[in-house]
## 1
Amino acid sequence: MKFLRFYILYRLQIIIILVALGVLSHIYLDLVTAWLCYSFAIISLVLYFMMGTMRIVQEAVTDGDVEKAQLYLNKIRFPRLLFKPIRSGYYMLQSNLSMATNDLDKAEANIRKSLKIKSKITGDMEGSNLMQLGFIELKKGNTKQARLHLMEAVKAGIPDKESLAAAYLQLCSIEGQRMQYKMSKQYFKKAKDLKPKNEEIISQLKSLEKQVNRMPG
């Protein structure tokens, strides 16, 4: 794993070394060795532009190291050249990190870029992207738009049941504010039926349950 991290971080320098070795092999050794060096350099160059550092960015996010994740993301100089599914993930992560620093405008701009990327492979990310946009709108105080985006997210499909439960709880709260008590209760039931295990979501469930039980109808 350390070698993979080193290779990803210093891929550009490795490409330069491989090309230099290829030239030297071409002059002093043989064509086979030279073309092996050139081939590895070409493969590395394709990976550099089409995958970037996303592999180790995801590791940093999993470890909860936000600073390192941002550092690795900043090493991607040409995000538009990333392979479509990876590009979509890149913009989504940028949005997540911007939300963590409360830069909501940047978070929204990045998630909208992710939404614009159409790919069969990224089809299951549409719901997650729309949910993220809904949460950003909520933080901005745009409840009407947040409701629409969250409803679209649920319709598009959110693969992670914890995230889906979070979306249902937000819709439950919004419908309660709109005094649409029947809808609010339905969303609450849907969230509860998913049996989420995330402590924060469980806490929200308990808090909302008291309000839902007091709703008329």
Note: The chain has three domains: 1-50, 69-159, 162-217.
## 2
Amino acid sequence: MKLILLGPPGAGKGTQCKRVVDRYNLAHLSSGDILRAERAAGSELGRKAQSYMDSGGLVPDDLIIDMMIAAIKKAPANGYVLDGFPRTVVQAEGLDKALTAAGEKIDAIVELKVPDSAILSRMTGRRSCPVCGQVYHVVNLKPKVDGQCDKGCGALVQRKDDTPDVVDHRLKTYHEQTAAVVGYYENKYPILPINADQEIDRVTADMFKGLDDLAR
């Protein structure tokens, strides 16, 4: 199963991806996680991407496409979930071109839908572990010990791109560029619209039902 998970920043893509990965035994290919790993490693890609990421802007399409295609080629035969990619129509076209050349295709697009007002509340309260990447929230998904990762990694942090000004910019960028990706895929692959403005387990249940129906 090869899936793309789309939705605005803060829609819960990372959390839901992990659940899809566990249920269907897929690889989780998160563009954000891969970029942060490259930045932490001090690679050439990481250095180029850092200024874009810190300001909440999109990393240039050519860098992202090359990075994600390389990750897809390393994915196991069971399939994968693309999280945070493609974010522009140009990226979607680049992905389609690479998949067609390899004789492959995407099985479905999962679109998480959340109002902007809910996104702002979610993201400014989000905290993450800089070691393992686990994400928490000060209200909706609290760690067992305040400010500490449940896995014992240490203190949680607020990412620079989760501050109010950056969140506003990221939402504007999403509506201007990424939302068009859904339109690009409308006549290409099945699209599963999911109401993600509800309790996390309810979102998961709705998503699993749609994917199970597709797999039958």
Note: The chain has one domain: 2-114+175-215.
